[in-house]
User: Fold this.
Amino acid sequence: GENVEQHPSTLSVQEGDSAVIKCTYSDSASNYFPWYKQELGKGPQLIIDIRSNVGEKKDQRIAVTLNKTAKHFSLHITETQPEDSAVYFCAASKGGSYIPTFGRGTSLIVHP
Amino acid sequence: GAVVSQHPSRVICKSGTSVKIECRSLDFQATTMFWYRQFPKQSLMLMATSNEGSKATYEQGVEKDKFLINHASLTLSTLTVTSAHPEDSSFYICSARGVGTANTEAFFGQGTRLTVV
Assistant:
C-alpha cells in the first residue's frame, strides 16, 4: 500500500519567515495530494491540494509543488504569521475512491 | 468549501456505556464518509469507510462490533462506540465526500473528544 513520509515533525520559525514541509510517497499511481491544517482540538481543514497533472499551485501565501518523478511534494508558506501555527498533514490518494494515506504531521510554530 | 458538522465535540461517559457520534454534511450530499481515530500528537488512523445504504468497510484491526457505523442517508453517518472502555478514549473525526463532485477531496468534521472514565 501507499506510504507517506513527512518531514520535519516540528518546525519553528520567526514571524515573516518562510516555512517548507516536505512529503514523499511510494505509490506512483497516487494522483491527488491534499494538505490539511489542524488546530488544537479541531478537525483537519483542507488548505490546498494538487493533482498529478500539475507541478505547482499557489493560493496567496501558500503554495504546493509536486515532483512526480521523484514522488515528493512540498508545502510552502511565505510571510508566516502566528495564526499559521498548527499541525499540518500531507496526504496522498489515487483513483476516485479517495482514501488518503496521511503523513505523520508537522507541528509548525510561528514565533511573533 | 463544504461543511461537515460533527456532534458532540466532547463527551465523557462511564466505562461500559455506549456513545453515539454524529457526522452530518450540511450543504452537500455525501456518498462516502470516513471515520478516523487520532491519538495525541499522532496522525489520523482510518477506522472505516461507509457508503450510503451499504455496510461499512472496516480497516484491519478495527472491531466492527465495537465501533458500529451507520450511514443511512446522504447527509448523516453515525459512529457508536459500544461498551466503551478507557482505552477507547481518543479524538474521533469524520470526513465526507460528495456526490458527483469534480474534485475528490473529502471535508472533515470538527472532531469528537471521547473520554471514558
Q: What stands out?
A: The mean pLDDT of chain B is 90. The radius of gyration of chain B is 13 Å. DSSP finds no helices and eleven strands in chain B.
